[in-house]
Write a structure and sequence with these properties.
15 helices, Rossmann fold, 7-stranded mixed sheet, alpha/beta, Metallo-beta-lactamase, Chain A, 22 strands, about 30% helix
């Protein structure tokens, strides 16, 4: 029996990436992410897993973002005991992201039970810190471009994808077939991260389509940031930046530090990084110099340019401080974390600004805010949105459709089939159309639960 591929997530949506590959009696997962955003998607995290987790022999993980890695603790909690293959930086980032998610799950459940606003009695965490810590023992990191054996006689290989530190494309040779998963492709000519690495050949390809229907803005991010900061500070306001703790937070610090150093924003303007996860992720940059373009001196800008806010007490004091400042805090889609308390305090006041700097999935507070919502629900009550809202799409860590096609053109020959994944329906179909029309390749938009033969 040949290989079979089943789409358990990351199909019809940008979240919950899970691709099940089966050959004979062996099952592998490429990525194992949480569903995020719309409630109908988040409820899938609580559903019975489509196969027995104990029957999965290994996970090949493209990168650490939760929509690709965040289900691993639950998979392990329910019986998975195989290795999780990743790059070293991905393992380090998962150590902080997965345990932090477990912590937030516990705190959210406790808060909901204390204030009685959950429909469930009692509200329970999806998984706990202990569950996350246990799954981390399963990680088995490998360097880029170093092949590794996978259960069932296959071979895996990671190549650089850009996007975030440690992000990889996943190459799997198994049963006489080669499958490549793009993971999340990064940007070309990024100031901090390497370009997505060229791949010459594959039989089957899974390609992400987050921005399959869009081109990123061409404005200089420093110019745009300088304008927002100076206007906001000029009227006595504060800039709140909901930022992904891994990737966007570090890019933003890099740009803001350069602006302040060059005198383009006030040199005495306080800047804060209020996210323990982002602080730890910034330290991981220093420990993995081969995975990015920054010098050791440039890495130290993370701690030198901003004040780290580590404790909850410090965060609350920052929220209460009316002085103009810049606060970078997770989460990037405003779905949880400390940034919610800052938004509750600063979003109602028109002199403040809120700056988004990454993809906002449908159903998230971030998506609602950039669409022009007048109120947003947080902690059981609605908060008016009077602050200026900005969406800096030129800071996205995802390749747009032009950059995706540029990467695809690096293949020496077309795959037998290209499966479009990890995109909303309109974006996925737009990318399918471009691949068929501009490259002449066969392409298909994957559907959730669909199963195909790879022969």
């Amino acid at each position: 029996m040949g290989l079979r591929l089943k789409f358990l997530g990351g199909a019809g949506t940008v979240t919950g990436s899970k691709y099940l590959i089966a050959h004979d009696d062996t099952r592998l997962l490429i990525d194992c992410g949480l569903f995020q955003g719309l409630k109908m998607l988040r409820l899938r995290n609580w559903a019975h897993f489509p196969v027995d987790p104990a029957s999965v022999s290994a996970v090949l993980l493209s990168h650490a973002h939760l929509d690709h890695s965040g289900y691993i603790p639950l998979l392990a909690k329910n019986g998975f005991r195989g290795p999780v293959f990743s790059t070293e930086a991905t393992r380090e980032l998962c150590e902080i992201l997965l345990t932090d998610t477990g912590h937030l799950q516990e705190k959210d459940a406790e808060f909901a039970n204390r204030h009685r606003y959950s429909k469930h009695r009692p509200a329970l965490p999806l998984y706990t810190v202990d569950d996350a810590e246990k799954c981390l023992r399963l990680f088995k990191p490998f360097a880029f471009a170093h092949p590794f054996d996978v259960p069932g006689g296959g071979r895996g290989l990671f190549r650089r994808a850009g996007h975030i530190l440690g992000a990889a494309t996943v190459e799997l040779d198994w049963g006489g077939v080669r499958l490549v998963h793009s993971g999340d492709l990064g940007r070309f000519d990024d100031p901090m991260l390497p370009d997505p690495e060229r791949i010459e050949r594959t039989d089957y390809l899974l390609i992400e389509s987050t921005y399959g229907d869009r081109l990123h803005g061409t404005g200089n991010p420093e110019d745009v940031l300088a304008g927002i900061v100076n206007r906001t500070v000029g009227r006595g306001g504060t800039v709140i930046v909901p930022a992904f703790a891994v990737g966007r937070a570090q890019h933003l610090i890099f740009y803001l530090a350069d602006l302040r150093r060059g005198g383009r924003i006030p040199k005495d303007l306080p800047m804060f990084l209020d996210s323990p996860v982002a602080i730890d992720a910034s330290d991981i940059f220093v420990r993995n110099p081969e995975d990015h373009k920054l010098t050791r001196e440039q890495c130290h800008v993370f701690g030198g340019a901003v004040k780290y806010v580590r404790t909850a007490e410090e965060s609350k004091a920052l929220t209460a401080n009316p002085a103009p400042k810049i606060v970078i805090s997770a989460s990037g889609m405003a779905t949880g974390g400390r940034v919610l308390h800052h938004l509750e305090r600063y979003a109602p006041d028109a002199k403040n600004s809120i700056v988004f700097a990454g993809y906002q999935a449908a159903g998230t507070r971030g998506a609602a805010m950039i669409r022009g919502a007048k109120t947003i629900k947080m902690h059981g009550r609605y908060i008016p949105l009077n602050a200026e809202i900005h969406d800096l799409d030129m800071l996205s860590a995802h390749a747009d459709y032009s950059e995706t096609l540029r990467w695809l053109k690096g293949f020496a020959a077309p795959p037998r089939m290209t499966y479009i994944v990890h995109g909303e329906p309109v974006a996925a179909d737009a990318l399918r159309h471009r691949i068929e029309e501009e490259l002449g390749w066969p392409a298909h938009v994957a559907e959730l639960g669909e199963e195909v033969a790879l022969s």
